[in-house]
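INFO  loader      accepted 1 record
INFO  loader      residues=73
INFO  predictor   begin
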Amino acid sequence: MRRISNIKIILILIIFIALISNIFLYMNNRIKYKEIPYKLFLEHIEGDLVQEVELKDKSQLRGKLKKWSLIYY
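INFO  predictor   done
INFO  writer      dumping tokens
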């Protein structure tokens, strides 16, 4: 009887961990990139709003904004 109880607890924990993992994976997939004009990108850099810049290829830049930057378009 006690063994069945332990198995139920373990199964509940596994299901709970799986649900929490799926929530975090879903939240990470929701992060989207927004294409903006180059001039606006330069303004963000000059305003010290950009944390990181990555050169994807010769025609594409990708910038990561600082965590608490408030930007409205």
